[in-house]
Amino acid sequence: MNSIFEVAHADKILNRIDKLTTNSQPLWGKMNVSQMLAHCSSFQYVAMGYSTPSRSWSGIFFGRFAKPLFYNDKPLSRNMPTIPDILITSQKDFEKEKENLKEKLITFQKKGPTACTERPHPFFGKLTPEQ
């Protein structure tokens, strides 16, 4: 599985972000490009422990069993629900969100696995830095 902690993989992600424009259209989902950039930034906050969305009842009961279905080399299924706390519905500034996400990814990559929170994921529960 690719890892953001590998410079080459982090660079691929950053290059994909750099190719986005305000006219980029979603391939799936309902958020526009600016909202998706903010959404991805919110995930970085969760991964680093700066944000701690509450665990849903479904996550508490089913998350640990579902974890192997998601943490593998397969891409995520389209139109899956997201954590309600990081669903972005307000309008966002594209350039600001683009730079914000890039900064968070670079910081996370440079700090390495020790930057990962030990708090449980809102749905999957306990995750390792590799996950």
TrEMBL record:
Residues 112-131 are annotated as: Disordered. This is DinB superfamily protein.
